[in-house]
Write a structure and sequence with these properties.
Largest sheet: 5 strands, parallel
Number of strands: 7
Shape: globular
Number of domains: 1
């Protein structure tokens, strides 16, 4: 009973996810699966960019009222998803945000490149609906449920590099 009472007194977390994906079909599918995740306590707002070169300008724009809690990047994009990873992890304002990479490649050198650029995790892109659903459930459970996602305030990030971390959001 205390567990239930605790949930009643705390609002459900609302997570911001930035999806960088050039394939509209994959992006729409991922957005839908995150919105209908089996983890109802994990509400997600998904923002979608088609172009990897737009990531940093978009994060700095007035449209982005809240920093994302998680960024998901397609590695094999015409304009290089790897570049977006390197830019994010090279920028002190955004390097704390976990970056998950989805890739269709099985090349060991590409996988090494993903991690060398600073990605926090890399998954093979699924080939079917059930596999996509399983991947979204795994991401939701781990990254939005178990992992401690940093919540860094803009002024704290720029001045001292400190912030708060909340388990599961």
């Amino acid at each position: 009973m205390p567990h239930l009472l605790g949930r009643m007194h705390h609002p459900e977390p609302n997570f911001e996810i930035l999806l960088v994906e050039d394939n509209p079909g994959d992006a729409i599918l991922l957005q839908d699966l995150f919105k209908h995740s089996e983890h109802p306590a994990r509400r997600c707002n998904i923002r979608w960019l088609m172009n990897s070169t737009d990531v940093i300008p978009y994060l700095r724009s007035p449209e982005m009222a809240h920093r994302p809690d998680l960024i998901i990047v397609d590695y094999k994009m015409p304009l290089d998803g790897g570049r977006a990873i390197a830019e994010l992890k090279g920028d002190p304002d955004y390097r704390h945000i976990p970056v998950i990479v989805l890739t269709g490649t099985r090349s060991p050198s590409d996988i090494c490149d993903v991690y060398r650029r600073g990605a926090n995790c890399c998954y093979q892109k699924p080939s079917g609906l059930d596999e996509y659903d399983a991947l979204v459930q795994a991401i939701t459970e781990h990254w939005l449920g178990k992992a401690c996602i940093p919540v860094c305030r803009e002024s704290a990030t720029r001045s001292s590099g400190t912030g708060d971390a909340i388990p599961g959001g």
